[in-house]
Amino acid sequence: MRNLIDITDLSVEEIDQLIATAEDIIADPAKYSHACAGKQLATLFFEPSTRTRLSFESAMLSLGGSVLGFSEAGSSSSAKGETVGDTVHAVSCYADIIAMRHPKEGAPYAAAQVAEVPIINAGDGGHNHPTQTLADLLTIHRDKGRLDNFTVGFCGDLKFGRTVHSLVHALSRYENIKFVFISPLELKLPRYVKEEALKKKGIPYTQTTDLESVIPQLDILYMTRVQRERFFNEEDYLRLKDSYILTPAKLTNAKADLSILHPLPRVNEIQVAVDKDPRAAYWRQVKNGKFIRMALIMKLLGINI
Ligand code: CP
Fold this sequence. Notes:
The protein has helices spanning 12-27, 51-62, 84-92, 107-114, 130-144, 162-171, 191-198, 211-214, 234-240, 282-301, and strands at residues 40-45, 66-70, 97-102, 119-124, 150-155, 177-182, 205-208, 220-223, 259-261. It is α/β, with parallel strands linked by helices. Strand 3 (97-102), helix 4 and strand 4 form a beta-alpha-beta unit. Bound molecules: phosphoric acid mono(formamide)ester. Residues 49-52, 123, 132, 263-265 line the site of phosphoric acid mono(formamide)ester.
């Protein structure tokens, strides 16, 4: 039985295959409309979500399957003190596959130890978010036609931004990727991510606090929200939340074929005026999230079309 807890649970070849399947779904959705008939997806969200939960549900419904689950911990028996393991064990009795988001790092891994069906990590605390990474990779591939030979800038909360950690791991496995990490000093990429994804493999990266000085060299700019829910005090959040605000003026010297990504939700870090710029890829990212999750659900259920 396969789970997706960390993006490195998938080989590069498997990711390329998921992208190819997603492309086929986009081209001919009717071909897949009964692929998961009779199968049930459970979405167990112990933390808020719009895109991830609803795209998983939409994905399963578009595959002809059905969905069940909860969207807040308070409406599940975890409010009565049930452990994650017991909740997942119980839901395994009803569902064929489980997508789970939890505020505690490692909770989906713990769930996978007791589950009798595949577990998908839909975001665990400030750790990882592998299915967002699949949506990011599909978007980059659709925009650029490849996943190698880029200079990629990550900007904002690189400490708590789980989407950043997973995407750095994923891109570090492709050829000739250079990373530029742009953040306040307090929100730098964690050392363990640098060690595991970059230093061990000798992958080049630079770190800066200044977005505008590096924008001209970037092929991809991955903006992120400062993750208020992970801060220990409100004062620090208020001080750091507007560290970077992308505006049309700041893009004047950017490459003509820059792709601007953001996992969303955004707060203030990309002005709405940027949405009109054809380089803004974040709404395409949202759409792509559904198709790549359709491909993932089929893969983990062992369904081939
Ligand atoms: N990108 C993402 O995880 O969005 P949601 O929190 O809305 O699911």
